[in-house]
Design brief:
- This protein is α/β, with parallel strands linked by helices and 470 residues long.
- It folds into 3 domains: 37-183, Leucine Dehydrogenase, chain A, domain 1 (Rossmann fold, 3-Layer(aba) Sandwich); 192-353, NAD(P)-binding Rossmann-like Domain (Rossmann fold), CATH 3.40.50.720; 361-452, no CATH class.
- The chain is 45% helix and 14% strand.
- The protein is built from 16 helices and 12 strands.
- The protein has helices at 6-18, 25-32, 80-96, 117-133, 152-165, 192-205, 208-213, 232-243, 266-276, 334-342, 350-353, 356-370, 379-397, 403-410, 415-440, 447-466; strands at 36-45, 51-60, 68-74, 102-108, 142-146, 224-228, 247-253, 256-259, 286-287, 301-304, 323-325, 346-348.
- The protein has a 7-stranded mixed β-sheet with strand order 9-8-7-6-10-11-12, with helices on both faces. A 5-stranded mixed β-sheet has the order 1-2-4-3-5.
- Helix 15 crosses helix 16.
- The longest helix is centred in the last third of the chain and has 26 residues, at 415-440.
- The radius of gyration is 23 Å and the shape is globular.
């Protein structure tokens, strides 16, 4: 049996969609190929005095638009194939949600839990220095972000290293996104991917034709939801569905999975996990045999929000969900995809559904280039205008609005309001565009293929308009 290739799986999905487009074969080959692959080896002296050689990567999949954009992950699973695949998905993701970046991705092959904070800082700064040497980082060339195993701390180290090496660059803060707000980050970035998943799935659930095909009513309220993974993306996805009135019947994590028919309070579960170190034995819930068991629960919406390939040819026949939202990258293998299509399960694909992170990263990048906080110019003006309008209405009507409504009406949008609003607009438009292409061509077998068609058309149009491929 040949070894599974994540990048080959992405190419397979690309080729499946390419037949529904009009573009020249050579142009399609250019779009699917990785433009630049950087493979690094560098030594790091650890606190015990030993020297370790670190393996790391950065891939720039497409330069049809620059800069390239994509996260940096710290994981023992990092390899060239994975990074190439994730970079390709970033190209298509950015195209679908109209974020003007080419796809990129990076990774360092380490288990971050086995290093001290000091050692992690040394590794991150050395990696950044190597990227600077090869021109694989910069606000106009390649803009990394957090991914699995990294966060605001690592991005702060990276931006500081870049700015130290480029003191003349006034836009240095834009060399990475996902930074702490104090370092040029944007409010709303932390929950962005999970909120984007929620907005995308909510819009899918509001499309009556898609819900009728699966015997479901529109809307997310009352829908039975299972979430696999309680990291940043999984937790926030679960949180927003819970707050919208969905019923969280199942949650899975690496230590196991639980089921509760009448719903799990996500906040109580997180408190339980903080106290016990596990989601298991949550009051009122049933422990399942293993972490993958929750994937097979009877539910309306299944959201894999952990790592890739959790749904494969072996367990796909037992999936009972009517809608699967791919919050993680590549959680379904191509073989499983075919099985789910036969079962008429609607798979909302990762390549646009988890684009909330890159969308808000785009907002952060724009903030760094403009050097102005969102809302600073107009918030107070809007509050004053709203207050004046409210006073006039109250005077004309002879009635006074209660304090809660008054506060809401007078409120002027600040940074987080604008970020959430921009993300909601992005995910709604992307969902409608993908569904529209699917509806317009009944031969397209599934939503993933429709999403690839949208992405291919946008990237190819950019090349054509540039005159590179007349």
């Amino acid at each position: 049996m040949s070894e599974y290739s994540f990048f080959a799986a992405v190419e397979k999905s690309f080729d499946k969609a390419a037949q529904f487009t009009k573009w020249d074969k050579g142009l399609l080959e250019q779009i699917r190929a990785c433009n630049s692959v950087l493979r690094l080896r560098f030594p790091v002296k650890k606190e015990d005095g030993s020297i370790e050689v670190i393996e790391a990567y950065r891939v720039q999949h497409s330069h049809h638009k620059t800069p390239c954009k994509g996260g940096i992950r710290f994981s023992m699973g990092v390899n060239q194939d994975e990074v190439m695949a994730l970079a390709a998905l970033m190209t298509y993701k950015c195209a679908i949600v109209d974020v003007p970046f080419g796809g990129g991705k990076g990774g360092i092959k380490i288990d971050p839990k086995k290093y001290t904070t000091y050692e992690l800082e040394k590794i991150t700064r050395r990696y950044t220095t190597e990227l600077v040497k090869k021109n694989f980082i910069g606000p106009a060339t390649d803009v990394p972000a957090p991914d699995y195993g990294t966060g605001e701390r690592e991005m702060a180290w990276m931006v500081d290293t870049f700015a130290t090496l480029h003191p003349e660059n006034i836009d240095a803060a834009g060399c990475v996104t996902g930074k702490p707000v104090s370092q040029g980050g944007v409010n709303g970035r932390r929950e962005a991917t999970g909120l984007g998943v929620f907005f995308g799935l909510r819009e899918v659930c509001n499309i009556q034709s898609q819900m009728e095909k699966r015997g479901m009513t529109t809307g997310v309220e009352g829908k039975r939801v299972v979430v696999q993974g309680l990291g940043n993306v999984g937790f926030h996805t679960a949180k927003f569905f819970y707050e919208a009135g969905s019923i969280l019947v199942g949650i899975a994590e690496y230590e196991g999975s639980i089921f509760k028919e009448d719903g799990i309070n996500i906040f109580e579960l997180m408190e339980h996990r903080k106290k016990t170190g596990s989601i298991l034995n949550f009051p009122g819930a049933t422990n399942l045999e293993n972490s993958k068991a929750a994937l097979e629960l009877d539910c309306d919406i299944l959201i894999p929000a952990a790592l890739e390939n959790v749904i494969d040819a072996e367990n796909a026949p037992r999936i009972k969900a009517k809608v699967i939202g791919e919050a993680a990258n590549g959680p379904i293998t191509p073989e499983a995809d075919e099985i789910l299509i036969e079962k008429e399960i609607l798979v909302v694909p990762d390549m646009y559904l988890n684009a909330g992170g890159v969308t808000v990263s785009y907002f952060e990048w724009l903030k760094n280039l403009s050097h102005v906080r969102y809302g600073r110019m107009e918030k107070r003006f809007n509050e004053n205008v709203n207050a004046k309008i409210l006073e006039e209405i109250e005077e004309l009507s002879g009635k006074r609005v209660d304090d809660k409504a008054r506060k809401l009406i007078k409120h002027g949008a600040d940074e987080i309001d604008l970020v959430h609003s921009g993300l909601e607009e992005t995910m709604i438009n992307a969902t409608r565009e993908v569904i529209g292409v699917w509806d317009a061509n009944p031969e397209i077998p599934d939503m993933r293929t429709a999403a690839y068609v949208v992405a291919i058309n946008k990237v190819a149009t950019t090349y054509a308009e540039l005159g590179i491929f007349p």
